[in-house]
Amino acid sequence: MSEPLQAYMDKTVQIITNDGKVILGTLKGVDTSVNVVLHGSTERVFSQDEGVEIVPLGLYIIRGDNVGIVGLVDEGVDSGIEWSEVKAQPLGSVRHEGGV
Amino acid sequence: MLPLSLLNTAVRHPILVELKNGETYNGHLVNCDPWMNINLREVILTSPDGEKFWRLPECYIRGSSIKYLRVPDEIIDMVKESQHKERRAQTGGAGPSGRGGAPGGRGGNTRGRGR
Predict the structure, then answer these.
(1) CB–CB contact B3 A59 (8 Å)
(2) What is the complex's ipTM, to 2 decimals?
(3) What does the pLDDT read at residue B107?
(4) Is residue A98 part of a domain?
(5) Digit-coded pLDDT (tens) for B72-83
(6) What is the 3-state secondary structure (H, E, C) of chain B?
(7) The CATH number of domain B3-86, selected from 2.30.30.100, 3.40.50.1820, 2.60.40.1120, 2.40.50.140
(8) What's the pLDDT tens digit per position in A21-30?
(9) Is the pLDDT of residue B62 over 90?
(10) Interface of chain A against chain B, CB under 8 Å?
């Protein structure tokens, strides 16, 4: 079912949610609806005026409906980035255009 | 670990639920089902802008309206324990709460025995 995500189990992943949040944490579980369990999770809040704010969130269940992207984090690369100096426009939420 | 097993284990513990409309519900989890519908007690509801608050004695939330849930860190360790207990109950015999399988049903080759 959600077999590809089993490869990311117990590794650090970054989830981009449908409302444009960026959440990192250790992947502890996933089911067929792509509901996800993240342990020790943090949110990275981006802004154009200040560096990235890191908000601790803890143990999280993100409902599959709200999951946009699950990406494996390369911790070597990630830890080399000085996030407090990164300025970027925050993501917007998912837009559904056209459709029925 | 299945997300819903974690949620099941969080029953009787405080959780935070954010809905798709941005409202957050803080309360004790009373019950949940396989659709993630949940029952909360002693709830504080916060408006999407975070400025208004309401106290509700209890509420029922449809699973499909949930964006995410935050559960206490220690729950993840309790899931492992409750899964062990379930497995023990399923294999039968072991433990005082076993389902009355044949005595000593776990020794050696258990396949096909007692059914």
Answers:
(1) no
(2) 0.88
(3) 45
(4) no
(5) 999 999 987 777
(6) CCHHHHHHHCCCCEEEEEECCCCEEEEEEEEECCCCCEEEEEEEEECCCCCCEEEEEEEEECHHHEEEEEECCCHHHHHHHHHHHHHHHHHCCCCCCCCCCCCCCCCCCCCCCCC
(7) 2.30.30.100
(8) 999 999 999 9
(9) yes
(10) 17, 19, 28-31, 35-37, 39, 57-63, 65-66
